[in-house]
Structures are given as structure tokens and as C-alpha cells.
Design brief:
It contains ten helices and seven strands. The protein is α/β, with parallel strands linked by helices. Helix 2 crosses helix 3 (49-59) and helix 8 crosses helix 9. The protein binds cytidine-5'-diphosphate. Cytidine-5'-diphosphate binds at residues 9, 14, 31-32, 35-36, 92-93, 96, 122-124, 168, 172.
């Protein structure tokens, strides 16, 4: 069973998806972390960033992934914080434009979600990775609110985050392969002014009304 949560940067996908997965007893998949790992490997000059970032996933079993509890590893190293820097963030949206990167990561994501009950979040889960997901949510919020949340989380200037976010939004929406858009059958949820709990409740209600889980 799969709940897909897509949307632009800062819409609250990660926090909401993680809390929802906890509430339902599902496994959480952060597909953005995979694009970030490729970006980090590339910035570090790895000879084959894609193999390196994907190789990590092959070595981590499902049990280990659950035990990692949201931590991200690359070649055995804990890179949970290293993949969140502004430099990696910008590079991630650049590598995500490349068809060979998308193809490889989408294949990996499909393999993972086939193995259990997942809440998976990203940009293209409901449209490309898993069009048959039982429930699809498209999370949005105003650009200002999204930038404000991210700035508070990272302790940085909101205006700068807003400018960088606009660039990433533009790249994600305009790219030729899997541009960001809501699936036709996705439920759009504007989280502006809502708390995380309120958003999680709404999605959990939707899941219940569809007899999920
Ligand atoms: O959390 P935030 O939305 O800032 O970023 P993320 O979800 O960690 O994703 C980082 C970048 O990876 C995004 O800017 C997208 O360009 C890309 N991405 C993607 O193309 N497809 C996905 N399923 C997930 C992320």
C-alpha cells in the first residue's frame, strides 16, 4: 500500500510524510534525499556519483533502513546533515533534471515501495514513480510561507531562501523530464496557515475514508 505526497519545496512534505508514516505504521521514503545524495557525491568528486549514491541503497536492507530512523547514509557514512546544505540543495535540483539520474532513482524507488507499506514523498511519486498509488496528495503553501518555514528550520534569512526557492521551483516545474505537477487524481492540500498536526489529521482521515490502511 502506498500514500504518495508530492509538492514544491517547503510545502511540509517531509515533516508531514514522516509523521503520517509513524501514525499508520508505514515506512517513510524521502525520494529527495536520494537526489541530494547524488549531488553530494558529485560535489565530492566521486568518480561515479550515481553508482555511489545508489550503491548505498543496495547495501541497506529494509530492516536496517527502519533502524536508521530517518538518517541517511552514503557509502556507510551518515550524511543526514551534509545533504541539507544550500550547496547540495541547489545541486540536487540540477542533477534531478538529467534523465539518466531520474531513470536510475525512479527504478530504485519502485523497488523499495514494492516491498511494503510506504508513505513516499517527492515531486513525481504520484505522476511517475507510482501512478497507481492508493492515495495521492499534492501539498502546497504560499511561496512566502514555504520560504519562512525553511528559513526557520535552517536559521537563515527568509528573503534569500525565497529567492533560491523560486529558482528551484522554476527548474522543477520547467524541466523536460517529470516536471513538477499534481497528478489528475491527487487531492490538493494548501497547508498555508495549517499546523503539521492538522495536515496529518486531514490526510489520515482521507486514508481512513478510503479504508486505508
Ligand atoms: O525538501 P525540499 O523540497 O527542499 O527538497 P527535496 O525534496 O529534498 O528535493 C531536493 C531536489 O531533488 C528538488 O529540488 C528536486 O529538484 C529533486 N527531486 C526530484 O526531482 N524528484 C523527487 N521525487 C524528489 C526530489
Amino acid at each position: 500500500m502506498l500514500i504518495a505526497i508530492d509538492g514544491p519545496a517547503g510545502a511540509g512534505k517531509s515533516t508531514v510524510a514522516r509523521a503520517l508514516a509513524d501514525a499508520l505504521g508505514f515506512t517513510y521514503l524521502d525520494s529527495g534525499a536520494m537526489y541530494r545524495c547524488v549531488a553530494l557525491a558529485e560535489l565530492r568528486g566521486a568518480p561515479d556519483p550515481l553508482a555511489c549514491a545508489i550503491g548505498l541503497d543496495e547495501r541497506v536492507t529494509l530492516e536496517e533502513r527502519v533502524a536508521l530512523d530517518g538518517r541517511v547514509t552514503l557509502d556507510g557514512e551518515d550524511v543526514t546533515d551534509a545533504i541539507r546544505t544550500a550547496e547540495v540543495t541547489a545541486r540536487a535540483s540540477e542533477v534531478a533534471v538529467r534523465p539518466e539520474v531520474r531513470e536510475a532513482l525512479v527504478a530504485k524507488q519502485r523497488e523499495l515501495i514494492a516491498a511494503g507499506d510506504y508513505v513516499a514523498e517527492g515531486r513525481d511519486i504520484g505522476t511517475v514513480v507510482a501512478p497507481s498509488a492508493e492515495l495521492k496528495i499534492f501539498l502546497t503553501a504560499s511561496p512566502k510561507e514555504r520560504a519562512g518555514r525553511r528559513a526557520a528550520e535552517l536559521g537563515v534569512d527568509a528573503e534569500q531562501v525565497l529567492a533560491e526557492q523560486a529558482q528551484r521551483d522554476g527548474r522543477d516545474a520547467a524541466r523536460e523530464h517529470s516536471p513538477l505537477h499534481a497528478a489528475l487524481d491527487a487531492v490538493e492540500l494548501d497547508t498555508t496557515g495549517l499546523t503539521v498536526d492538522e495536515v496529518v489529521q486531514r490526510i489520515a482521515e482521507l486514508a481512513r475514508s478510503m479504508s486505508l490502511p
